[in-house]
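ARCHIVE CARD
Drawer: 12
Card no.: 0347
Subject: one protein chain, sequence and derived structure
Cross-reference: see card 0346
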Amino acid sequence: MSIEYRIMTTADRHWSPNVCSMMAGLYAEDPPSSPAPIDRFPVTIETLLTQPHLGTIVLIWEELPIGYALLIPYWSNEFGGIILMIDELYIEAPHRGRGIGRGFFEWLTVNRRVDHVALMLEVSPRNHAARRLYESLGFTERSNRLLIRR
């Protein structure tokens, strides 16, 4: 079976429960520092579907959705252009280790929705496999620390 990467559109709303389930899977497998608001996942999906200037959802398919990515663009003065934040990237466990993540980044190189000057992502310290993938693709750790306030 071939893997397909495609932008989720309003015509794909019926897949929203699947995406929400994968979002919950991401946070269950790799818990963040503070709890993720699971009840807000449908709001995230609807917001990105109806306001694509805020970001994009990419569905990763193999007959059915087996993964997703959230892509959020923002302007960086430091980099002099748009940084595309890969806010979330998730592939269901049975499909990992097959090059699907690497394929996503190849797809992203060809399918540039915004004219970004850099890609950015986060990886938890315990997700060694993802970190190895990202470093093999040229991602490097920055010396500055990311701080957040809620």
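Annotation on reverse: The first strand starts at residue 4 and ends at 7. The beta strands are 4-7, 56-62, 64-76, 81-91, 116-121.
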